[in-house]
Specification:
alpha/beta, transferase, 293 residues, ATPase_BadF, kinase activity, 2 domains, four-stranded mixed sheet, N-acetylglucosamine kinase, 9 strands, globular, Nucleotidyltransferase, domain 5, five-stranded mixed sheet
Length: 293
């Protein structure tokens, strides 16, 4: 029996799915972050580990990895030469690196028209109309990722320090955030020295939780990021009947906060990004799998 691998890697984790040549998933596994722009070497290590674990979960020998083709949808693959650098050092028989948005759209709407928004540690958007795809965002934490968990966490730390300095009014959220850092603003700054997007993103759920309780700072942050998300959706110029799928860890938290225009378009995704990677791998590599039997 021959296999294909689907890999979905972002700023927080990397997921792998091992499937048979007909697309039946027989093993899934998860490892650490796999943003190839922020940490190429670490991403490669986590990708291989997730693949190895997927083989073990499926009861298969990881020694088959060099004989298995893989589709990898990875954060950071949309800029520079990171995609090519990674493909050159992966152990799979064929390695095709795509953006995380590409596999997410494949999973969400299949081969038809529609749109998706990845709302997780980072953000990215893609729409397909009459067979043509358009991507928005995915430029990374430093200059992009508006509305992302990383930006929400970063904004929370900023507001916490502004409240500490008396520049902005504080709230229970900023008080609880400062307490995480032993009520020492210097510890907040020290945290940011080596923090990666996923580290900032870990604070995002706290903002949504406090917003539900009416926290003023939490709602101020979320009003801004919801506006950012809707601005990107607006730029996709969606048709009134186009399905819109929200993906990523923050998707269920964002959905009820969108305006009526976008809530009306929301449809559950056909599959997630990992499923999209598997579907793409089957479509592209089925002949390869048959040939190597």
């Amino acid at each position: 029996m021959n296999f294909v691998l689907g890999i979905d890697g972002g700023g927080t984790s990397c997921r792998a799915a091992l499937a048979t040549a007909d697309g039946t998933v027989i093993g899934r596994a998860k490892s650490g972050a796999a943003n190839i722009r922020t940490d190429l070497t670490g991403a490669r290590s986590n990708i291989v580990e997730a693949a190895r674990q997927a083989f073990l979960v499926a009861g298969q020998d990881p020694e088959l990895i060099p004989r298995t083709p893989a589709i990898l949808g990875l954060a950071g693959a949309n800029v520079g030469t990171y995609r090519q650098q990674l493909e050159a050092i992966l152990p799979f028989s064929i390695s095709r690196v795509e953006t995380d948005a590409e596999i997410a759209l494949e999973g969400a709407v299949g081969a038809g028209d529609g749109a998706m928004a990845i709302l997780g540690t980072g953000t990215a958007y893609m729409a397909r109309r009459q067979g043509k795809s358009r991507a928005i965002g995915g430029w990374g934490f430093q200059v992009g990722d508006q509305g992302s968990g990383a930006r929400i966490g970063r904004d929370l730390l900023e507001q916490t320090l502004l409240a500490y300095d008396g520049v902005r009014a504080g709230s229970p959220l900023t008080q609880s955030m400062l307490a995480v850092f032993r009520n020492n603003p210097e510890d907040v700054v020290e945290f940011t020295t080596n923090a990666k997007p996923g580290d900032f993103g870990g604070f995002a759920p706290k903002v949504f939780e406090h917003a539900e309780k009416g926290d003023s700072v939490a709602n101020w942050i979320l009003d801004r990021v919801v506006a950012d998300v809707e601005a990107s959706l607006g730029a996709l110029d969606l048709a009134d009947d186009a399905p819109l799928c929200l993906l990523g860890g923050l998707a269920p938290l964002y959905a009820p906060r969108l305006s009526a225009r976008y809530r009306a378009l929301l449809k559950p995704p056909l599959d997630d990004a990992l499923g999209g990677a598997v579907q793409m791998a089957v479509r592209l590599f089925a002949g390869h799998a048959e040939a190597t039997r």
